[in-house]
Amino acid sequence: MTNIHPQRRRGRPPKDASGQNETRQQLVRAGVELLTEAGYSSTGLDAILKRVQIPKGSFYHYFKSKEAFGEALIENYNSFFKAKLSKHLQVLPQQPLQGFYNFVDDAIAGLEKYNFRRGCLVGNLGQELYTLPAHYRQLLNDVFSEWQKLVADYLAAEQKLGHISDKCDCQQQAALFWTGWEGAVLHAKLQQSAEPVRQFSDYFAAILQN
Amino acid sequence: MTNIHPQRRRGRPPKDASGQNETRQQLVRAGVELLTEAGYSSTGLDAILKRVQIPKGSFYHYFKSKEAFGEALIENYNSFFKAKLSKHLQVLPQQPLQGFYNFVDDAIAGLEKYNFRRGCLVGNLGQELYTLPAHYRQLLNDVFSEWQKLVADYLAAEQKLGHISDKCDCQQQAALFWTGWEGAVLHAKLQQSAEPVRQFSDYFAAILQN
Question: How far is A12 from chain B (nearest CA, A)?
């Protein structure tokens, strides 16, 4: 690591049209990719820098530490995943739980695209919790709370249309969904097959409609 | 690392009464403890040797590499966990699913004992699969198959006594159990609470009886 950050001395680097610096975006993208495969502890900064072909000095222009970088990755992954959930979890009057299945199909396509190498960043970080900076625990719980709220709101809307049982406690079902989902993604990686995710999703949907 | 293994030159070290060498057992115990907290990639041999206070040369007397050591840890954890499952998953004629709840209660006591720092070794390794030796994937799948069989056999016995629904596909339910279980343990660690494990277990049991 060098103590000199040349770019800093020349002021902030140019921004692209979206107002986000392209190098920063590249770093975050590479970080998410590597961490969803290998986890935080075993992913060195060098591997990330090598992937995006930028010098260490530039990294420290954007992030003051690996810890701060990890926070940015969690934030980025959360935004990406919430957008995905919101896009798919739409209630369609004539098609009970179609939004749920749209999400599941999209997630399975994502797993298959990367040959089941990439899991869920938040699930991965949760597993290696005690090697992470202590305050990540709260960040990860907050992420799950947000995802849980999106699913609970969706289920409540499906319930209003009579698509799922009146007896369902939508908050509780949403919590159970994420519990099962993280386990299903783990088993999909192990078996290199979408079957555990498909099986869990069908099971979950059947219970909602019982 | 030294190339000389002094103990090897003096022949195998003495065995204890159980026929297992005490030093080897200490190494395996420390390895399981550290890996259930931190995972394989971020646990260096040095940390394990420091915990059991033995020199690196002695380690290489028992294990030819970290990879071989990891295999021994998976084997050891599997034996330990199968014994736990077999002990608890007993069918009691007057008490539907009592064996299941005995297992859940014991697992929760284990999580609480270590302040939710320790998860499931096999689940942890599954999350960091792509940083592990390639053949570990099959080892981990084999472990889950064995656990799944124990649960499926137990459920079939409960079904025979009329304790769970005739409609249950016991094999499928057993697979779903381990999917949900690994996710529930992850969420318990994140929330530092047994609630996700308890909630998932109650949900699973209720569905079996529906």
Answer: 35
Query: CA A65, CA A136: separation in Å to the nearest integer?
Result: 14
Residue B134 corresponds to which amino acid?
A
Between CA B113 and CA B106 the distance in angstroms is: 10
Q: Please report which residue ranges of chain A form alpha helices under DSSP H.
A: 6-9, 22-38, 45-52, 56-62, 66-88, 98-113, 121-127, 136-160, 170-191, 195-209
CB-closest option in A37, A127, A182 to B39: A127
User: Does the reported pTM lie above 0.80?
Assistant: yes
Each residue of B89-119: pLDDT tens digit?
999 999 999 999 999 999 999 999 999 988 8
Structure tokens at B175: 């697979």
Spatial contact of A71 and A35, defined as CB atoms under 8 Å apart: no
Task: Return d(Cα B169, Cα B157) in angstroms, integer.
Answer: 12
Q: What is the ipTM of this complex?
A: 0.86
What tokens were used for B125?
């390794």
